[in-house]
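Students often ask why inverse folding is considered easier than folding. One informal answer: many sequences map to the same fold, so there is more than one right answer. In these notes we will look at a single instance of the problem. The structure comes first.
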């Protein structure tokens, strides 16, 4: 099994993150959404331009895991006002955590999430939270195993569909 390394991203990673973001989003959700909804969502949210703008936000941080020279997983964190929701005082958000299908189950997600915990603590947060689609049972199990529990829910719009995301959090 090939080793992987994790590093923080900069603006120069916009294109690679857009590609990996679109690919992993499709791998995770294509089977349960229409092609039209997927196409529109990926086009709007995973263009190099969209990623470049997100990478410029000083209150967001991206990390990528690489293996054999290829980007295989990434995580986006939000701090302060960049969080997509105000869950509690002193919180930080993991907005996205995606491992390429071929590299799942190798401990990469665990390492990234543990890094999120230390970054959040360093930034003075006492709570780490994330939203996960209610029917994404594999991810829910993964987060539960790593100490997250459900504290609420919010609506997430994908194309013509309104879906429910559970909010899960962990005290740091
Ligand atoms: C969920 C995800 C981030 C986990 O990352 P990963 O690198 O595959 O997970 P790890 O290898 O670190 O696994 C950690 C533990 O969780 C468990 N786990 C991981 N994926 C699982 C799954 N699909 N079903 C059940 N358990 C799972 C593993 O068994 C492992 O336990 P172990 O250490 O006792 O073997 C990753 O599978 C992924 O990107 N999935 C698709 C995208 C997604 O759903 N992202 C979350 C959106 S909110």
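Output (designed amino acids):
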């Amino acid at each position: 099994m090939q080793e992987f390394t994790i590093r923080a991203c900069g603006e120069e990673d916009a294109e690679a993150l857009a590609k990996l973001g679109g690919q992993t989003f499709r791998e995770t959700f294509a089977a349960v959404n229409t092609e039209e909804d997927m196409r529109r969502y990926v086009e709007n949210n995973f263009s190099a331009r969209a990623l470049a703008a997100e990478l410029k936000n000083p209150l967001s941080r991206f990390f990528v895991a690489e293996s054999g020279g290829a980007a295989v997983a990434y995580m986006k964190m939000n701090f302060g006002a960049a969080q997509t929701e105000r869950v509690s005082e002193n919180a930080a958000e993991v907005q996205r955590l995606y491992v390429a299908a071929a590299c799942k189950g190798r401990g990469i997600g665990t390492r990234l999430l543990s890094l999120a915990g230390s970054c959040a603590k360093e930034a003075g947060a006492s709570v780490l939270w994330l939203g996960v689609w209610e029917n994404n049972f594999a991810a829910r199990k993964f987060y539960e195993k790593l100490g997250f529990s459900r504290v609420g829910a919010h609506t997430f719009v994908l194309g013509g569909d309104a879906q429910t995301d559970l909010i899960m959090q962990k005290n740091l």
